[in-house]
Amino acid sequence: MSPHSPNRSLPGVFTRPAAPPDHVIRYGDHADQVIDVRREGARPDAPVVVLLHGGFWQAAYDRCHTRPMADDLARRGYVVCTPEYRRVGQPGGGYPGTFDDVAAAVDAVLADPPAGGPVVLAGHSAGGHLAMWAALRHRLPVASRWYAGPPAREGARGHVLGCVALAPVADLGGAIAAGLGDGACRDLIGGRLDRLAETDPMRLLPYGRGRLVIVHGAEDRVVPVDIARRFAAREPSTTFVELRDTGHFGLIDPLSRSWPSVVDAIGSVARPSR
């Protein structure tokens, strides 16, 4: 059974009320090609967090369940951009549409950031995979439709300081082999393992783009922590934070005891001098 199966109750953060975004950026014509922006009176030079939601890339799960964490980060002085993207089960979702949308959404934020501070790419679960993938687009072949040129110089507007991945599917090939998500990982790429060369963060290393922090719960039963351990062993620049007595969803719940570690991880990238 999928961890997100309707037969399994979802954590309260999925249904907790949260404020609507301050405004919405549209980056395409599809209804899901939008980015929610929350700024909560942030300073003009505030750091920008691009927050990609999880849900095993499936149409049943959208950005709304990340609103509580986005609200909390906005209250802490960040400008939070939460993209939606086409997902598996929707026309155009999966490969290549999901990757097209994430690349376009990130590029839209970098081209015209809603604040002047540095940009942090972040995501949870499947969104952690997408955040890492977006941070590694400079490692794609130049001929790839998603190739992004060398990172902008530090201090430039739209400069990506790094990536914070929360319980990410960091090894897509390994997740497919393990059958995670009742086959959702395989569905993302249409069952074509040759597509892993362009879609699997593990296969795009070395990282070479600012800081990379992974936060993962040792008791995660949705995306087992061994996936993050393998990635961190392969990429020595990774700061790997493994939290004891923590499962999958505490990392997106501002009311959980794990949340301060998430806030610290994002701050360590966005405000490294603190």
Q: Tell me the number of structural domains.
A: 1
Shape: globular
* CATH third-tier fold name: Rossmann fold
Helix fraction, binned, reads 25-40%
Question: CATH architecture, please?
Answer: 3-Layer(aba) Sandwich
CATH homologous superfamily, by name?
A: Alpha/Beta hydrolase fold, catalytic domain
Query: How many distinct helices?
Result: 8
Rounded mean pLDDT is: 93
Termini distance? Answer: 43 Å
Query: What strand line-up does the widest sheet have?
Result: 1-2-4-3-5-6-7-8
What order do the SSEs take from the amino end to the carboxyl end, as H and E? EEEHEHEHEHHHEHEH
Number of strands: 8
What's the Cα radius of gyration?
17 Å
Biggest β-sheet strands, sense, barrel? 8 strands, mixed
Structural class: alpha/beta
Poorly predicted regions: 1-7
**Strand-residue fraction?**
15-25%
What is the level 1 CATH name? Alpha Beta
GO molecular function: hydrolase activity
Keywords: Hydrolase
InterPro entries: AB_hydrolase_fold, BD-FAE-like_dom, GDXG_lipolytic_enzyme
Protein name: Alpha/beta hydrolase
Describe, in plain words, how this protein is organized in 3D:
- There is one protein chain.
- The protein has 274 residues and is α/β, with parallel strands linked by helices.
- The chain has one domain: Alpha/Beta hydrolase fold, catalytic domain (Rossmann fold, 3-Layer(aba) Sandwich), CATH 3.40.50.
- Helices cover 26% and strands 16% of the residues.
- The protein contains eight helices and eight strands.
- It has helices spanning 67-75, 97-111, 126-135, 172-178, 184-188, 196-199, 225-234, 259-270, and strands at 23-26, 34-38, 48-52, 79-83, 119-124, 160-166, 211-217, 238-243.
- Strands 1-2-4-3-5-6-7-8 form an eight-stranded mixed sheet, with helices on both faces.
- It is globular, with a radius of gyration of 17 Å.
